[in-house]
Design brief:
Elements (H helix, E strand, L loop, with lengths): L1 E3 L2 H13 L4 E6 L5 H13 L2 E6 L9 H6 L4 H11 L3 E3 L3 H4 L19 H4 L3 H16 L3 E5 L3 H13 L5 E5 L19 H6 L2 H20 L4 H15 L4 E8 L13 E10 L2 E10 L2
Parallel strand pairs: 1-4, 2-3, 2-5, 3-4, 5-6
Antiparallel strand pairs: 7-8, 8-9
Length: 289
């Protein structure tokens, strides 16, 4: 595996791989790699002839300066993990390589997808995401780019951007990888205290309960009420983790992310909650059956 820090070197290696007939798989990350990231690399390794990973802590998508400052940067371990998972190339640029002096361009998805939920609680976040992802996709010249479904709203926004700009990259969504107790893998999990880590188990519990609630609501009323299910889940959160600070817990359409009332086929439960000062997000598809 080769590690490079410049756009010129990435394009050289990708061009060489394409010249030998390889398809290009790409995984954009901010480092602090965990099993969720490694699953993306392994998936790309199965499907592509050449696999590139970026490790870049993107400052423009952080709303809180403190979050940027404390974000973990274990680069040496990340490089080792990337190689073991099957990466051919890691692009680990400095901030000035991505945002050189005079950089003045943003890629903004001006859509309801970016205004609710994460967009509401983290103003400007998605502009930072779409700008850096658009630039990284352009740098990598990749055929396929791999994203985890834990960040469902981000995945939806990136898909919108790729469609709107007719970018020649297939966005591949990959299932959320979870800890043994169901908590979604996240770089933020390392910031949880032992006690907060126990409390965080309430998140997968709520998501698991959501399907049971949908089944019971349907059986009793012959209708599927998204707001009713969400209200019950919020009550469960309050009773099981009263110290948790909730940003949102709602039932939405998986495509538009708009809140739904009747669930005709499937819906998505999304949650963002602060536990022990750490903000965690997760989701689960629930299905009418």
């Amino acid at each position: 595996m080769q590690t490079v820090t410049t756009i010129t070197d990435v394009r050289k290696r990708v061009a060489e791989a394409k010249a030998t007939g390889h398809s290009i798989g790409f995984i954009p990350t901010m480092g602090a790699l965990h099993e969720g990231h490694l699953a993306l690399i392994r998936r790309a390794r199965q499907e592509c002839g050449f696999v590139a990973v970026s490790i870049f802590v993107n400052p423009t998508q952080f709303n809180e300066k403190r979050d940027l400052e404390v974000y973990p940067r274990p680069l040496e371990q990340d490089l080792l993990s990337s190689a073991e998972a099957g990466a051919d190339l890691v692009f680990a640029p400095e901030v000035g390589e991505i945002y050189p002096a005079g950089f003045a361009t943003q890629v903004v998805v001006d859509s309801p997808l970016t205004k609710a939920w994460e967009g509401y609680f983290r103003p400007g976040h998605f502009a930072g995401v779409t700008t850096v992802v658009a630039k990284l996709l352009h740098i990598a010249q990749c055929d396929r780019a791999y994203f985890g479904e834990k960040d469902w709203q981000q995945l939806a926004v990136v898909n919108q951007m790729v469609r709107d700009l007719s970018l020649p990259t297939v966005i591949v969504s990959c299932p959320t990888v979870r800890e043994a107790d169901g908590l979604a893998m996240s770089s933020r999990n390392a910031r949880l205290s032992a006690e907060s880590r126990k409390t965080a188990k309430v998140i997968p519990y709520l998501l698991d309960t959501a399907q049971d609630l949908l089944d019971s609501v349907t059986a009793e009323t012959q209708t599927d009420k998204g707001p009713v299910i969400a209200a019950w889940l919020r009550t469960l959160l309050e009773s099981n983790a009263p110290e948790a600070k909730l940003d949102y817990l709602v039932v939405v359409d998986p495509e538009t992310l708009a809140e739904v009332d009747e669930i005709t086929e499937r819906a998505l439960v999304i949650i963002a909650v602060h536990i022990g000062g750490v903000r965690l997000i997760d989701n689960r598809v629930i299905v009418r059956r």
